[in-house]
Amino acid sequence: MELVIIGGGPAGMSAAVAAYESGVRDMMIIERDEALGGILRQCIHNGFGLHRFGEELTGPEYAWKYEKQVKELGIPFKLNTTVLDITPDKTITAVNPEDGVFTIKAKAVILAMGCRERPRGALNIAGTRPAGIYSAGTAQKLVNMKGFMPGRSVVILGSGDIGLIMARRMTLEGAEVKAVCELMPYSGGLARNIEQCLNDFKIPLRLSHTVVRVFGKERLTGVSVARVDENRRPVPGTEEYIPCDTLLLSVGLIPENELSKSAGIALSGVTGGPEVNQDRQTTVPGIFACGNVLHVHDLVDFVSEEAETAGKKAAEYIIGIRKKNADVTLKTDGRIRYTVPQRITEKSDVNVYFRVGDVFRGACINVYSGGRLIASRKKARVAPGEMEVIKIKKELIPDSGELYFELEAKK
Amino acid sequence: MAAEGIAYYDAAVIGAGVAGAMTARELSRYDLKICILEKENDVAMGASRANSAIVHAGFDAKEGTLKAKLNVKGSEMMSRVAQELGVKYKNNGSLVIAFDEKERSMIEKLLIRGNNNGVRGLRIVEREELRRIEPNISEKAICALYAPTGAIICPYELTAAAVGNAMDNGAELLRNFEVTGIEKKDDVFEISSGSKKISARIVINAAGLYADKIAAMVGDTSFSIHPRRGEYILLDKECGAAAVHTVFRTPTEKGKGILVTPTVDGNLLTGPTSVDMTDKEDKSTTDDGLARVKRETSESIPSIPFAKTITSFCGLRAVGSTGDFIITSPVRGFINAAGIESPGLSASPAIAEFIRNMLLEQGFSLKLRKDYNPVRPPMHGFACADTEEKNRIIKENPAFGRIVCRCERVTEGEILEAIRRNPGARDVDGVKRRTRSGMGRCQGGFCSPRIMEILADELKLPFEAVTKSGGASLMCVGKTKEGR
């Protein structure tokens, strides 16, 4: 088969449509769930598609725009199908109830498996292990897709976007959200979500606070929260007990790259996703990656854009187009945590996406090539919760060497 | 004979931990009507679900003690038992490492003790060999006691399999049966749990932390049990190769010292702490305890990547007041299997035999059943099958082609099996312990709603009645749109 796309969420569908439009026909989307749409199926709130479609869509509406195209174009897809393995030579092993365990040899592969939530265990919060502790996304699935309430009085740890969305969602369903605690001195979510999901409902956001202990034998009965110091260590004496029956965790998303590892793809230690070039091609030729499996996005609009690049470039790879007229590595100063792509191998206009490691005001992003400033962009405020982009014009891309991304700002 | 209307059994085993489970299985070889009384919603809910998962070689316990005798014997029996019960078992060997000459003299004493206990193959390995057989070991370790018979096993898998095998051979499991009273009437014991009552001729008290309370019900107050907390940190399967052997620190008065070990499922397990407690229900972890586990295990193997932690948990060992296992019979037909702390898991097959012999000595006639089957097909049969076999199974039952837990690759077929097979899972944690669904990196984030649905369907429960681990541990509190 020419192209296999792993994952039928927004990234996978958008990549598939782009590849189809670039001429690929012998292709297939493999989706583990019972329907296309990915995690958008449970995101029933609005706010999707502002950038891309200029309208406020719900998650399922946004997903439907792509699902419709996939179906109208007749792009084949297999549901209820889990990929078990990808080899470096692009042999894919998968399983489903109808076909059993089967393999497909692909000319090109697009990885679009998304990400998972960091669970409680990874935080090592002391205390008991009662029912009532969920990651925010699991709670979202229970409420929005199953129609059940995980609890009635809620503390949320972490102010990632899903946590913020769920603070509002639980409130609308009649639960009392007592606090959202955030370990960092700033929120990890979008500014608009802080306004619309917390402030509009008078839900307190407690920055520099964490949950230090969990109580309850069978069902959660309460948590102890404490202020943390500048090293994120709980300050003794600041503990406060909050009675609640539910603790939701929104403490980070992790690109799901177990399959990428089996394919021998180099992963970035910062993003947790594959290292890619401007085409979103990984270190294994012919394997591309896009969406949250590559790096965690805030807005699905950018996922779609990235996936189109991957789909189009995978199509070019399949026909045998190999453009390589540069070999540039993108480096950052640490204030800028990472860039995607991490490499540029072709002189074309490249949108470089990046995230910063802290909140900065009066920021100026400078890009240097061989010590020479080639691009610069000013931003009144940058924050870890908001992905940024800077465009590098093709004529400024050197043949080889480094592009250095630096953030100049007051903290 | 028993009073009318009360179910009568030849033998009642109180407690479905590993000691009770193995004893019930041993007794199920004979022509006896058996019941297992468990106060929780599932088996292996006490120390048997949260311990080091080690089959100790047997060099720790003092010569002449029951602990020493039954540990060495149990450890020798374990690989056969594991094979019969289809339980994963790996003879990976163990190491007790010494950091200085004082510790060297301690492990030399252990070597002598182990030899006296009859442990085979013990020897001291010096720095160079130690580094070769355990590549990530600390530079500071000068030598180690090597026990080639040390092994690893999954304790709750073993317990569930032993109960399941006993049930396949006719035993009954009565869950949520917390024994509240025992009354001896002639040669029969009437055992009640609130208003529920059963009677039995033989009673095995394997009630773990509460074995003292149960013994007192027949007037035996010769011992007491107190809980000793042990905290553990479990790491991702990516880290399972960080240790080859089970690596112990040199023991102290308080226990065998903190260890690092691979598990049979490929994870890395570190712990336990050892803190004497009073509350028999307090299974909470502590900041201090978890910090100690990290610090002390990192001294043995400096490269343990704690950033890859999957979960942390706490077990309460049932420590007896005599210092040894308390396997006694205060009244004919009533046998205590109490104070079964470490090396209780290792000793459990031998404990079961020991108890059977006591019953024979007391004059109970035990007649072997002709149809007894010691074999229980493994729960992990599908996962271990080759592709051809998998496809045959999927064709027969498509549920095996639907993966529910993506991290541990558990299929719907396996989850259904866990609910349907003896002793069937009744809650989310029960499914997890039987199938590993939810034990992986996402800790059930993706699969738990689906598992709740399957449980509700299979057990014919409303979705909101599904629990995490029985009792009031409800996963959901009601439907949406119900208001407050």
Describe this structure in words.
The complex is a heterodimer of chains A (411) and B (484). Chain A has 411 residues and is α/β, with parallel strands linked by helices. Chain A has 3 domains: 1-117 and 253-322, 3-Layer(bba) Sandwich (FAD/NAD(P)-binding domain), CATH 3.50.50.60; 119-251, FAD/NAD(P)-binding domain, CATH 3.50.50.60; 324-411, Immunoglobulin-like, CATH 2.60.40. In chain A, 21% of the residues lie in helices and 35% in strands. Chain A contains 8 helices and 30 strands. In chain A, strands 5-2-1-9-22 form a 5-stranded parallel sheet, with helices on one face. Chain A has a 5-stranded parallel sheet with strand order 12-20-14-15-16. The longest helix of chain A has 20 residues, at 300-319. The relative contact order of chain A is 0.13. Among the domains of chain B are: 89-153 and 226-316, D-Amino Acid Oxidase, subunit A, domain 2 (D-Amino Acid Oxidase, Chain A, domain 2, 2-Layer Sandwich), CATH 3.30.9; 381-465, Arc Repressor Mutant, subunit A, CATH 1.10.10. With 484 residues, chain B is of the alpha+beta class. Chain B is built from 13 helices and 23 strands. Helix content of chain B is 31%, strand content 23%. In chain B, the strands form 4 sheets. In chain B, strands 5, 6, 7, 13, 14, 15, 16, 17 and 18 form a 9-stranded mixed sheet that branches. In chain B, strands 1, 2, 9, 10, 11, 12, 19 and 20 form an 8-stranded mixed sheet that branches. In chain B, strand 10 and strand 11 (188-193) form a beta hairpin. The mean pLDDT of chain B is 95. At the A-B interface, strand 11, helix 4, strand 13 and strand 17 of A face helix 7, strand 18, helix 10, helix 13 and strand 23 of B.
